[in-house]
Amino acid sequence: MKARVHVMLKDGVLDPQGEAVRHALGAMGFDGVDGVRQGKVIELDLADGTSEARIAEMCERLLANTVIESYRIETL
Amino acid sequence: MKARVHVMLKDGVLDPQGEAVRHALGAMGFDGVDGVRQGKVIELDLADGTSEARIAEMCERLLANTVIESYRIETL
């Protein structure tokens, strides 16, 4: 089975990488870009039957820093 | 309007970051993790009515390195 984990910085946490992208898009003439947030997506190829709770444990322990990041699990 | 762009390394392109995550998960006792690919997700806050073609242009010119990365646009 496959699962996809999206890890984004929590609202209110400064995102300098996203801010740099927003600024670069503006400088390249792309108008109307009001905000950019950049995060990670991690695609996992897992043994069949791996529970979502197990994937959440992977997120809590390794994939996301839950102090500043939130994560969302999507099983495919 | 909001759009989300997923940028992943193309198949066949070595992904050392994903490989490191796979290895770390195994070392932490998470069995059955056969493969990990890590990519970026970019959430854009755009002026209403921005066309998908315009977003694709942002991807081609800045957000993705299309030599080694593929991208997928999702409008929300």
From TrEMBL, chains A, B:
Class in the EC hierarchy, top level: ligase
Catalytic activity entry: N(2)-formyl-N(1)-(5-phospho-beta-D-ribosyl)glycinamide + L-glutamine + ATP + H2O = 2-formamido-N(1)-(5-O-phospho-beta-D-ribosyl)acetamidine + L-glutamate + ADP + phosphate + H(+)
Major site of localization recorded for this protein: cytoplasm
Molecular function per GO: ATP binding; phosphoribosylformylglycinamidine synthase activity
InterPro entries associated with the record: PurS, PurS-like_sf
Location of this chain's protein in the cell: Cytoplasm
Pathway(s) of this molecule: Purine metabolism; IMP biosynthesis via de novo pathway; 5-amino-1-(5-phospho-D-ribosyl)imidazole from N(2)-formyl-N(1)-(5-phospho-D-ribosyl)glycinamide: step 1/2
Keywords: ATP-binding, Cytoplasm, Ligase, Nucleotide-binding, Purine biosynthesis
Biological processes, Gene Ontology terms: 'de novo' IMP biosynthetic process
Signal sequence residues: none
Database matches in Gene3D superfamilies: Phosphoribosylformylglycinamidine synthase subunit PurS (3.30.1280.10)
SUPFAM superfamilies assigned to the protein according to its UniProt record, in alphabetical order: PurS-like
EC number(s) on file: 6.3.5.3
NCBIfam families: phosphoribosylformylglycinamidine synthase subunit PurS, PRK05974.1
Assembly mode: Part of the FGAM synthase complex composed of 1 PurL, 1 PurQ and 2 PurS subunits.
Role description: Part of the phosphoribosylformylglycinamidine synthase complex involved in the purines biosynthetic pathway. Catalyzes the ATP-dependent conversion of formylglycinamide ribonucleotide (FGAR) and glutamine to yield formylglycinamidine ribonucleotide (FGAM) and glutamate. The FGAM synthase complex is composed of three subunits. PurQ produces an ammonia molecule by converting glutamine to glutamate. PurL transfers the ammonia molecule to FGAR to form FGAM in an ATP-dependent manner.
Name under which the protein is recorded: Phosphoribosylformylglycinamidine synthase subunit PurS
Organism: Roseivivax jejudonensis
